Design the sequence.
């Protein structure tokens, strides 16, 4: 079992950074066809690994497929990472700029955060064959979530645009709606007994958790607008926090994406600052 700060914890992080860098240099001079289908292959590997989670659950009643979907190790879409691994292969191939911007920003941020705070791995109690396989699945799956979009940028298969910085926010809100809808169906059918704030709430879709992590979101949320009868309105309450944080993430990723391809870095920085200042948001009204 990994704990944050342990040797194994750092080895996983360093190892997957090495894999990402290695794949970049392996593919940098290849044809676009090879780059594209290599990344698609990685995304499909994560897609398949998501559904192998069903193998690590030991049903306690008569075996049926849905006895294995117990809301703990099942394949239901209960958080942003699970939605990502299911949608990303198709968004990569067929998505327009709106969906690809979401793929890039959410993939990099959620994948990196999952590596830095591997809460799912910490919950693995026994390192038997099931536990080891589940741990390996977690790291490969979440490593691909952030390596694939980073490769899209580093290999120049995609370029971010400043004016589209707000789109990942809308995409993530859409994903959260999908999560809540899936949980509703799973609970209604009896395949999942836990739902709402006391169930699976790893993406805070039902409301914030108590403590420092929850306060990162609640400080920006006016309760008068986003609560009802003392409860946070599911998904809707995240409107401002998601916009605030992921707009910043999108702008940072866009800056690095443009920075890497600019021959004169100092001129590039000044040019990008001027572009940001040129937005109507920053213009003063002319009298």
Sequence:
């Amino acid at each position: 079992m990994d704990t944050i700060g342990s040797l194994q914890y750092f080895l996983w992080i360093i190892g997957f950074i090495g894999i990402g860098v290695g794949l970049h240099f392996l593919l940098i001079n290849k044809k676009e066809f090879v780059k594209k289908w290599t990344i698609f292959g990685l995304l499909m590997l994560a897609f398949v690994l998501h559904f192998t989670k069903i193998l690590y659950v030991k049903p306690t009643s008569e075996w049926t497929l849905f006895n294995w979907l117990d809301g703990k190790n099942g394949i239901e879409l209960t958080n942003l990472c699970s939605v990502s691994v299911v949608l990303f292969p198709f968004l990569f191939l067929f998505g327009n700029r709106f969906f690809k911007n979401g793929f890039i920003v959410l993939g990099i941020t959620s994948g990196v955060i999952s590596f830095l705070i591997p809460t799912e791995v910490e919950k693995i109690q026994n390192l038997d064959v099931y536990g080891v396989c589940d741990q390996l699945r977690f790291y490969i799956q979440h490593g691909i979530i952030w390596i694939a979009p980073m490769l899209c940028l580093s290999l120049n298969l995609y370029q971010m645009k400043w004016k589209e910085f707000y789109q990942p926010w809308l995409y993530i809100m859409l994903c959260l709606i999908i999560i809540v809808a899936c949980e509703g169906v799973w609970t209604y059918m009896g395949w999942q007994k836990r739902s709402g704030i006391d169930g699976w709430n790893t993406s805070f879709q039902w409301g914030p958790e108590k403590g420092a992590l929850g306060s990162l979101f609640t400080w920006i949320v006016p309760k008068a607008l986003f609560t009802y009868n003392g409860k946070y309105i599911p998904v809707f309450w995240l409107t401002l926090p998601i916009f605030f944080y992921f707009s910043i993430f999108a702008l940072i990723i866009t800056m690095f994406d443009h920075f890497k391809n600019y021959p004169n870095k100092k001129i590039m920085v000044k040019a990008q600052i001027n572009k940001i200042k040129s937005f109507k948001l920053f213009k003063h009204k002319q009298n």
In short: The CA atoms of residues 70 and 192 lie 5 Å apart. Confidence is low (pLDDT under 50) at residues 59-68. The two ends are 64 Å apart (CA to CA). Residues 129-154 form the longest helix (26 residues).
